[in-house]
Every structure is written in structure tokens, then in C-alpha cells.
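Appendix B, example 12.
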Amino acid sequence: MNIISKIRNLLKPKYRLVYRKESNGDFDTYILINPSWAKGRPPHFSNDYYRAKGIFNKGFKAVCLNRQDRNGNNAVRSFNYDGIQSVQKLTFLESLA
């Protein structure tokens, strides 16, 4: 990664999300960049199960800094609106930590 992309990543807004998993009820904290609701894109998603029930706005997607995919890159994760406990925009100094 070159220096320009590292500086660009430092300046991107970051969010701390506390989320309750639907499967087991555990709480996790995620650091997000580029959430769909903050970039002017359609802020919702749905899957075939919920679309069959007529629900088209079930949650949003974002890149998680503290979750890696198989290649070691930051993974994209979907978040259900029902599981969100809190969202906080991090300050510049908090995002450096």
C-alpha cells in the first residue's frame, strides 16, 4: 500500500457500531468505513427470504476494519437494522487508535 492510499484511509470518516447478532444474541463492536447510508447510495439491502415477505429495507452494508476476509482484506458485512444498538462517528484522534 503506498503512502497516498494510507493517508486517504486516515482521512475517511469512521464509525463505531455496537451490534447484537441475531443467531446467538452476542454483542460485537465493529469499526466501519464507507457505510452505504453515508455515501449517498441506496441505504438498504434485503435478501430473497425477506423480499418474498415484502420487506425490501432490512439493513445496510459497510466495510469493517476489524474483520478480515480470506485474502486478509477488510471485509464487507451486512447489518440488520434490528440488531444495531448504537452508532458513533469517531473523531480523528479516536480513529488513529
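The beta strands are 14-20, 27-33, 59-68, 74-80, 84-89. The first strand starts at residue 14 and ends at 20.
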